[in-house]
Amino acid sequence: MAEMMDAKVGDTITVTDSSGTERKVRVDGITEIHIGHFMFMTSGGYKHVFGEQYQSNAYMVRLKNHETSNVESHSAKLIKLDGAKGIVQNTTSKKQVAAIVDLPDQIMEVLILAAELLAVVILYNLTNLNVSERIRELPTIKVLGGLGVLVYRRLKTVDMLGALKSVE
After folding, report:
1. Which residue in 2, 152, 153, 155 has a CA-CA distance of 20 to 30 Å to 43?
2. Digits of tens for pLDDT over the chain (168 positions)?
3. Any residues with CB less than 8 A from the CB of 25 and at least 6 apart, and which?
4. What angle in degrees, to the nearest 10, is found between the helix axes of 148-167 and 90-133?
5. How far is CA 90 from CA 32, 75, 94, 96, in A?
6. Is residue 161 exposed (0-12), middle (13-18) or buried (19+ Cβ within 10 Å)?
């Protein structure tokens, strides 16, 4: 939030309260939170900025049973209460963080697979190029008792083993 507003410690920022009134707030510190935007105030700071006594408008509920089904059933019951306007579950935040953290891993897996395939293709093409350049030497190998098919097979096998070794 501070970065988006280009605010630094000691600066004064303008915020709009729920009634639409703009209020000036001095930035005393900045913390880094990677999901969401929050502004923290002491009760005294709240009274100074908004001109009224701070009153809690939320409750923190900690369940003994943290299973998703239990959390969802209690959330459904709590949202039906007259004073409830919304429920924020930290399980939802945890899932969002996990999804964001897992995404680069999946991208890296795809990139590694593509690099491995590229290495195999390059080595295969280099082998064929090497053999085609040495085509005049193959008759000499045949005369000495070697079979052309075996030479090709051996060269390709050596290259594939080299490719597998390089992937490690």
Report:
1. 2
2. 888 889 999 999 998 888 889 999 999 999 887 767 788 888 898 898 888 898 888 888 888 887 888 888 888 898 898 888 888 777 777 777 788 888 888 888 899 999 989 988 888 888 777 767 766 666 666 666 655 566 667 777 777 777 777 665
3. 12, 13, 14, 15, 39, 41, 49
4. 150
5. 18, 12, 6, 10
6. exposed
Residue written as token pair 């005393």: 28
**Six-digit token string for 20:** 């639409």
Give me the residue label for tokens 């085609």: 132
Structure tokens at 72: 């969802």
Q: What tokens were used for 44?
A: 């005294």
Count of Cβ atoms closer than 10 Å to residue 149 Cβ:
8
